[in-house]
Amino acid sequence: MPDESPELELGNASLDRRKFVAGATATAGALAFPGQVFARITRGSNSKAVAFAQPDTSFAGYPLLLHGAKSEASKRGYQLLESHANHQLDAQVNEINTWIGQKIGGIIVLPLDNNAMLPLIKKAHAAGVKFLDYSDKALPGTDGWVIFANLQGAHVGGAYLGQWINKTLGGKAKVALLTHEIQKTGRDRIHGSVAAMQKVAPGAKVVARHEGVLAAECLTVAQSMLQANPDLNAFICIADDGSLGAEKAFMQTHPSAARQKQMAMIGYDGTTPVFQKILAGSVIRATGALDLIGIGAASVRATIDAIEGKGATRINYPYVLAAQTGPGRAVAKSLLKRYKAITG
């Protein structure tokens, strides 16, 4: 687990997959509120507004996060402000400053740069605005966080890849990493995956690594990696979006059926397009899946609870393996059905 502080624990490495899927299905009905996203807030109602500052709006799982966030805000009688930073640090800092100036009730933020958030935390508290951390518990002095059990998830994903390497390649593989070292979640996912993979398959060697999160940037990075190392066997991606970009780059090499059988990609988050790729038998073999709807709802819930001074403001979400083989295949099918019912 990524921390040892008192918090609401929602799972651990021994999480029962059937309970996870059953709980996810039940939650879908509970979160089926239409909600509203307000670009501006109504005069005089600032304290009843919260901001979900997740700047990766092109991320394939963002509509699911937003669905959960909108539903929870609607249920609690709060207006929800959505980020439009588009993964740009200057834009993120500007919009957070705007929300603080409006003295909204609270902000939960996925920081593009932790150091840039430090003065904003102080400024928010001086204005009476609650400030929470999303994804990492890496910012000091926050009023809570919604984080992920990244080391548990990395163990699940890395061990699966190691088993695939042993079974398919006789224990030896050349591995590329698409990383995000600036963020603790990125470091935990990637480093934890490599450690778990090599514990199972010691003959798997990392031969390439580069920063890359979203599909478009990972497409070009993976193209370069494959040109330099045409015999790569695996990609470990910080996020599902990265695996989509890497898979596209690999398929552009026009690999034979035999070559495709020698490639495996894993990612993290658990998104609809990746579940579809997994179940279709693509080279994307698995993902460490999170309950994205539940996380969106929890982000707003923790922020409102911090504002109102009640409830859990420290929440840690577990991962569950969605994969082409074994029990993970049923997980992929169940989560795909649930997500498609919401996003179409």
Structure description:
- With 344 residues, this protein is α/β, with parallel strands linked by helices.
- It folds into two domains: 161 residues, Rossmann fold (3-Layer(aba) Sandwich), CATH 3.40.50.2300; 140 residues, Response regulator (Rossmann fold, 3-Layer(aba) Sandwich).
- It contains twelve helices and 13 strands.
- The protein has a seven-stranded parallel beta sheet with strand order 1-12-6-5-4-2-3, sandwiched between helices. The protein has a six-stranded mixed beta sheet with strand order 8-7-9-10-11-13, with helices on both faces.
- Helix 3 runs parallel beside helix 4 and helix 5 runs parallel beside helix 6.
- The longest helix is centred in the middle third of the chain and has 20 residues.
- The protein is elongated and about 60 Å long.
- The protein starts with 7 loop residues before the first strand and ends with a helix.
Which helices and strands occur, and which strands form pairs?
Layout: E1 8-9, H1 17-30, E2 49-53, H2 62-76, E3 79-82, H3 89-102, E4 106-109, H4 114-126, E5 130-135, E6 145-148, H5 150-169, E7 172-179, H6 184-200, E8 203-211, H7 215-228, E9 234-237, H8 240-251, H9 257-260, E10 264-269, H10 272-279, E11 284-289, H11 292-308, E12 314-317, E13 320-323, H12 327-343
Parallel strand pairs: 1-12, 2-3, 2-4, 4-5, 5-6, 6-12, 7-8, 7-9, 9-10, 10-11
Antiparallel strand pairs: 11-13
